[in-house]
Amino acid sequence: MQSGSQFIVLKKKLLIAADVDPRFVARIAADERFAVVQELADAEILVTRAHVRVTRALLEAAPRLELIAQGTSGIDNIDVAAARERGIEIINLPGENANAVAEMVIAFMLMMTRTIPRYTEEVRRGIFRRDDCATRHELRHYRLGIVGLGEVGWRVARLAGAFGVPVSAFDPYIDDFAARGAAPAPSLDALLESSDILTLHVPLTDETRRMIAAPEIARLPRGAFLINAARGEVLDQQAALDALASNHLAGVALDVYDPEPPPTALPPDPRLVLTPHIAGCSHECKAAIGEKLYERIMRFYT
Which of 66, 84, 173, 202 has a CA 20 to 30 Å removed from the CA of 103? Predict the structure, then answer.
C-alpha cells in the first residue's frame, strides 16, 4: 500500500502453537515482515509440531490462514484434505530430527539388551547383584530388523552397523538397501522371523496403521525386543504389552503412544522402557529446525 511517498508494509500475522527454538521466536519477532499474534482467528501463518492436532474444526477457526509451518517431518497430525480445500500450503522438515531419533533407538537397544532399567532399580533399592551379568549380550549378538529405511531408518542402520550388528530392513519404497546399511528382507514376515530386535520407522498412513499387531508380533522370535519411535498408531500397543507380559517379548521400548498421552498407567515393568515422545528432541535438532523453519517461511513469501 502507498500513502503519499511512503510505503506501508502489511505484516503477516503468525501464531506459534508449539514449543519452538527461542532463536526462531527472536528472529520472527525482529523481522518487520511478521507480527506474532495470540489469536487463531488472526493468524495467516500457523507454526506447529506433531503433537498439535490441526483438525478441520481448527482450520475453520482460522479464516485467514494461508500457511502451516510444521517443525517436524510427518504431517499426519494435520487434516491435509481440509487444508487443501482452503488452498492452505503446508511446510514440513523431513529428516531434520532423524539423527536424534536414531541415537535414541540405539539407547533403547542398549538399555533393553543389557537390562539397564532393572539394574538401576535394584541398585536404588540397595541390591548389588552382579552374578547374572554374563548372561547379557553385546549388541553384535542380535539381528536388527528395521521396518522403514527412510531418513531415520538408514541412520539407525548405520549406527547399529558400527556396533557390528547385522541389519536387515523391509521397505517396499527403497531400492538401494546397501547404500543405507541394511540387507533387504524379501517380505515383512521374513524380517519379523529373523529379527531379535525390531524397530519401526514408517510414517503413519492407511497402509501402516496397526501394521505391527498381534499376528506380526507372534512371528518375532521368542525373547525379541520391540521398539516404536515412529507413530503410536503403527503398533498395536496392547498386543505388544500382552506379548511382554507372556514373556514372548523380552523388552518393549516406546517413545510414541496411541493415544498420546496414554490415558491409563502403563505396567511398572523394568523391561518396558518409556519416554514421552521426545526421541526427536535434542538441542541440536531443535536449533536446526528453528533455523530451517524460518528460512522456509522466508522462501514461501519471497
Answer: 173
- Specify the CATH architecture of the domain 98-274: 3-Layer(aba) Sandwich (3.40)
Q: pLDDT tens across 205-245, in order?
A: 999 999 999 999 999 999 999 999 999 999 999 999 999 99
In this prediction, residue 4 has a pLDDT band, given cuts at 50, 70 and 90, of very low
- Residue ranges per domain, the chain? 2-94+283-300, 98-274
Q: Is the pLDDT of residue 57 over 70?
A: yes
The predicted pLDDT at position 68 comes to: 97
Active site residue 277: yes
* pTM (2 d.p.): 0.90
Backbone angles phi and psi of 68, in degrees to 5: -110, 120
Active-site residue, selected from the candidate residues 103, 151, 260, 291: 260
Annotation says 44 is catalytic: no
Of 27, 155, 231, 271, which residue is the catalytic one? 231
- Please tell me the CATH superfamily of domain 2-94+283-300, with its number: NAD(P)-binding Rossmann-like Domain (3.40.50.720)
